[in-house]
Amino acid sequence: MNAFLSQLLNGLDKGGAYALIALGLTLVFGTLGVVNFAHGALFMLGCFCAVTFRYLITLETVTLDPEKLSPWGQPVEVRTPLVQNWFGDFGAVLVDYSVPISILLAIPAMLVIGIAMERGIVKHFYKRSHAEQILVTFGLAIVLQEIVKAFFGANPIPQPIPSDLRGAADIGAWFGMAPHLLTYPWWRLIYLLFSGLVIGGVFAFLQFTTFGMVVRAGMADRETVGLMGIDIDRRFTIVFGLAAVVAGVAGVMYTPLLAPNYHLGMDFLVLSFVVVVVGGMGSLPGAVAAGFLLGILQSFASMTEVKSLIPGIDQVIIYLVAVVILLVRPRGLMGRRGIMEN
Amino acid sequence: MFSLSRKDLLALAIFTVVVLTMPVWLAPFGAAYPGLMQKFAIYAIFAIGFNILFGLTGYLSFGHAAFIGVGSYTTVWSFKLLTMDILPAMVLAVVVTGVFALVIGYFSLRRTGIYFSILTLAFAQMSYSLAYSVLTPITNGETGLLLARDDPRYLDALLGAQANVAGLPQPTLLGSSVAGYAGFYLCAVILILTFFLSQKVFASPFGMALRGIKSNQTRMNYTGFNTKPYMLAAFVISGMIAGLAGGLLSITDPLAGAERMRWTESGNVVLMTILGGVGTLFGPVIGAWLIKYFENIFSAINTNMLNTAFSFLPDGVQSFVVTVLSKFVGEGWHLTLGLMFVLIVVFLPGGLVEGFHRFMARLKRRSAAPERVSSVQPAE
To answer: How far is CA A97 from CA A50, A106, B48, B127, in A?
Structure first.
């Protein structure tokens, strides 16, 4: 039972990441009709926003402390981050919490990157075939990841969890179980809550604002909305930026769980496409549901009991589910009729 | 059965000459060594095979690397279990890959468009993951499948042909070695045969049916034409050719690793085909050659070479130029590849072959400009 629950929780936070990426992907597909193979690269860029922020905030001064001597008789070097010099203790907290704070950097950065990408390249591909859209965004993804590689190198750069949030939450105790029976790392719990929050935010934005209403109308019938004198293209550009932001913040918060490297985007891209297809192309709730579903399935498949029953299942479960869903229910879990069927 | 139209015959003759004289005309480019030319030929075969599917039917498969992998593994196993002769190895590679493609194609072809791409991608990723994990007894996991001195080689043992050579046995063709230039000419001959095959497919009623499917599958179905077997045949042929290419990779270097099945490899072959020109005869070959050439040349350039090349510039400018360019060569050559790819898709969606046609058309128009008025003809 405990093993079951803890696998469920493990699956949920992974599912949160899948759901966030797939949400952005579906948003772009539903509004602009573009199959964006560079979406994984946006997730990766988000991760590197966190890396950049931490690099900037930990720029440090080196002073020699003549009072203290190291064992071999030389003054000890004292390294203090500049922010700590300027702001004292607050600066230290800033360094400690660099990952969550870098969201503040990631949001504008990803918005700019997303809008630039849409205006620069993707815009020209609305009328071209899906194959060509796949190809150009695939090329773009290669370019983005190679640029990141040129700046940050090929090795993963681990990011620390803020020191207050390390360790595990004793979830079992909250529900009246014996202590230490069911524990779960704090950061994963936070990631789960965070992804729920972002997903809720996106849905609320689309559901309860005028902007969101126009976007939903545009998704349903772009032409009519255009005829009503609304500049739908500009709104869709912003939606692309929004999708980039969602992918970006998903990446930022994921960095403590998985050290970012330059090909992270490609690894997640295949997965997130599978998620989108399983959920049903163009269906936002479908993407979210499928994200969590696949995350949970993946974590159950990696249980030893399951692996001993069907060897290798943990490696292929996601693709297996995708194949089965596509063959049995080609529109995915919640796809609508007539989308991408030709 | 083996006849060709006059135009195709000419194309085949030119192609044969170009391929067989590769060692001559590649020499000025610094690429005339057998190892690289073998790669040129093998990847051209792969791209031709891919083009039969993507170019003719418009179905974008993102899982063709799996076939290369299956072909490679089959070949090495044939070396290990049967004989070091390459003929059975190649036949086996093609047959096994064909069966594999039949299974994948049967399922994948039930869907079209992006769903088909995702299905092929999912199958390829499954093969790749399994090759690394559960199938390790067959694939030898990360190390890759290697030949060993004490492999059984039953067929060789039966014929008493087990050579007592020092070190690892080498692949042979009816007893003669296929290392170096012999290996290149082997690949070259197979490339020419594949090219001939693709010409035949393009010119045949089968090829016409495939083109019909590309332009409008629904209409084909409504005219009472069952498109399924045609699609499956195209998929299997394309897979078999990829398997042959994989087999040749293992013949020229008897080591098969799962990294050949990575999905970026599938992306590469798409890239080659697009770069050259989708649905054309020469396009995929040109694309494969260019990409493999640039991969070899660009990734070998380092900062020292750049420094000597730009030494004529003033110091400050030189270091600036070298710093900028060094991001595009050596380790960073993929950046060049990605940029090239984006530019081609944006500006020249038909690939280099289309660019060439446009250029020729412009030349023709310029020379024929004065007669333009009289050249207008009523539509038939």
So the answer is: 11, 15, 54, 41
